[in-house]
Amino acid sequence: MDDIKYWVALNRVPQLGTVRFRRLEAYFGDLEDAWNAGPRELKAAGIEDRPARELVAARGRTSPDDEVASLERSGVNAVNWHHPEYPARLKEIGDPPPVLYFKGTLLPSDERAVAVVGTRSPTAYGREVAAALTADLAGNGITIVSGLARGVDGIAHRAALESGGRTIALLAGGLDNVYPREHTGLFEQIQQQGAVVSEYPLGVRPDSRNFPRRNRLISGMSLGTLVVEAGEASGARWTVYHALEQDREVFCVPGSIFSPNSRLTNRMIQEGAKLVSSYTDILEELNLTSVSRPTAVDHQIAMPMEKDNRDLEPLGDESALLQYLNEEPIHIDDIHRTANLPIASVSGMLTMLEMKGMVRQVGCMHYVRIREAATAYGS
Q1: What would the pLDDT profile of 273-309 be if each residue is shown by its tens digit?
Q2: Are residues 236 and 117 in the same domain?
Q3: DSSP β-ladder status, 366-369 and 330-331
Q4: How far apart are CA 158 and CA 135, in angstroms?
């Protein structure tokens, strides 16, 4: 948009947030007029004395044109909440950022997103669960949202990338300040299969006060938040609180009653959070059972499969897997052992076969082969 330079310039004024940006828009319409307004006009727009003085002072040290030039040199895009690339789901929260900065791509398919968060010091169990659940979600067309932090966040981003899925990282500072520094390589990789995003201008360093606010964006961009491991003092609790305020789903992986890393998750389950033992628990709760991963070529939003999916023949590996199923329920772990295939591969193929109407999950991860499939494929 032509006036984005005034949005990014105004976003440099610390006292201007969601409410005051809305007042400026309502009164001036064009934020170029707001940027150039005097104290009397700003007061008429509903801007109090202190933020009005800060806005006027900002004009002496900030150039809208220089702000845009700096973003261009850094390869950073900036969009306001009217821009089509601004995430639609984020507009629904109570205090959406007036301006978002990002590197990479934001796609319509990212509306089907799940946040994955947790402790910075996961146990071996937590690391394995975070990687497995994230890979399965990403493999089923779900964009993974997290905060680039050490521990569960980093594991989730990497698992999404390795499975060929999309992932979005929300930062608590400007996009020229990667934190933690050891995630600089991950920061670059995410831009190839997603985006790194911040509400903070360039030059803003991560601050302890920024992280809780940043977490509202992690939950805000997502249909639901999955907490893998988190203690009562974990920063993930802020993401959970924001998700509840935003009326978003909260999912928790149960853990040992003796583990401090599972105290928050176990308590949240007691209080009504959805217990997760498989990625299908999340897909079903979000009514996304029939989502398939968009290809890297078209990035189209996957639509629910229609009834004629049973006309689609399975691929070779899927057909081979069918021989291990019959009309008696068999657990996915038994299929995995009998077929001697990785559990992630078995899970993905079963999902595809279910979408094609050839197998059905009858509860608790037990699958049966549908009679028509058995007839069509000779057993």
Answers
A1: 999 999 999 999 998 864 444 433 332 223 233 333 3
A2: yes
A3: antiparallel
A4: 9
